[in-house]
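hiii so my PI (J.) wants the whole complex modelled not just the main chain, which honestly fair. so below is everything: two entries, each one labled with what it is. i double checked the lines twice but i was tired so who knows lol
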Amino acid sequence: MILPTLEQKAQWEEEGYLVFENAIQGEDLKQLQNAFDYWADACKAEWLDRVEAGEAAATFYDIPNPLEKDPIFIDIIDYPSYYGALMAFTDHELILLGPQVRTVAPWPVSYTGWHPDVGYDNPLHIKVQIYVNDVEPGGGEFGFVPGSHKPGSGPYTRPMRQESMTGHKTFPGKAGTAIMFNSCGWHVSMDNHSDTPRKSIILIYEKRTPGRIGPQQFASISEYCKTPERRKLFSLDD
Amino acid sequence: MPRIDAHLHVFTKASAEFPRETPDIWPAEREEPVEKLLGEMEKHRIDQAVLVQMAGASIANHRYLLRCLKEYPNRFLGIGLVPEGHPNPAEHMAELTDNTGIIGFRFSTFGGPRDIFAKMDVREFAAYPIWKCAAERDYVLWLYPNAISAHLLPYLIQEFPQVRVVLNHLAACPGKGKFSWDEFGRPQVQVTGYNLFMHTTYRLARFENVNVHLSGQYAFSREEFPYKDLAGWHHGLLGGFGAKRLMWATDFPWILEEPGYGKLTTVIEELLPGLSEAELADIMGGNAKRILRFPDL
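here's the output for the full assembly
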């Protein structure tokens, strides 16, 4: 487990995010990209039917139940390059809430506006966004307002244009980059004016609280969770 | 400031003088005439309204709407329909807007790729000539997009920023097979618990020419009036579009029996209780007057 440096800890506390360049690389990255592309393609027709039926948004889609589709999607949940930081920040009481294996289409406007995911009274809620393909500036890259995770910061209001958000920072990056952020902080997907869909995986974690996730939630992947650490991460023994 | 009901329907019995389509829900003998509407408006202090064509898109089908507009030119503006696949929509629209009070047209499809990941050339969209015509002749486009068409809208809006756009019924985009009628004869649209429209039509707030109706709550809500489960939708629209681009409407006559016209005149105060007096007045009519250019009374 790679624990965060003092500098990383300080940045996490002060700014609410960390960037792990080349967090996933080499064969692991290729495997992840292949699994992503295969399943995104396989699931697309069904997603379009759901859009037509008004059951799914037209502007992005997630591969359903990705953990059951390829073990690589499980292996990135506790991937060494960022797992240590997740454990350190949650006092080793980390649980997974779920993954979003997401393809976002180029579109004249972003599919979402600036927002925090949870309030300050929520148990520590962390997301890790992993780019599966290269994400250039203007290609739907992640945006975050450093420091906005702190109670007493702001107030923040959602601007009409993504780039008008006060104090924001954007995060273009190469495939394999992982961006960890405190979900109390204001964040967004910037507009994607390129002709390339943004492929990324958003892993959602939280500091454990009793009963938050039941043992059935991830029971279908139990065979891949043999170690006590993994079983705890996936709430399999709760 | 006038109080304006920005979206409703009137129709009369089907006849040679006023031909119309006669589906089961509004059979030939049913009528919801303009006089009945005027009675409700009078009773609840509503000054003006937008009459939206239904029951047929041909020129002849518009005769009753045209008669109402002619008879009450200061009270009403009209929205027409264009037959799907019409060979010359510009001609059809011109005929219906020649000093008639019809100011625009209602659509739900745009004729572009079903898949948002496809290459988008807005000039290839079937609706392109209609939007071009609207831009040239200053028509308002009254939109109730199908779920599978919503992603096409920003391409058209970007291409024609001068066209005034009004998204109907809370900017909702009904899904295929999700439309029905309830026991009160009201349209019902089944929607997901999670509001998907915030990822499509709500995102159009970026474009200053896009406006939204606060109406049709009964069709989406799982509760009775005042439809508190839709408060979040209203706050989302207010936050995105602001109080200057929202318009209240009742969708008369579907709401006459339940909850009744009078109750719906209070629905905005119920769902957006934090509005200032001026904001409420804008939503209840000021915006419709300004955006749709209603005549002074």
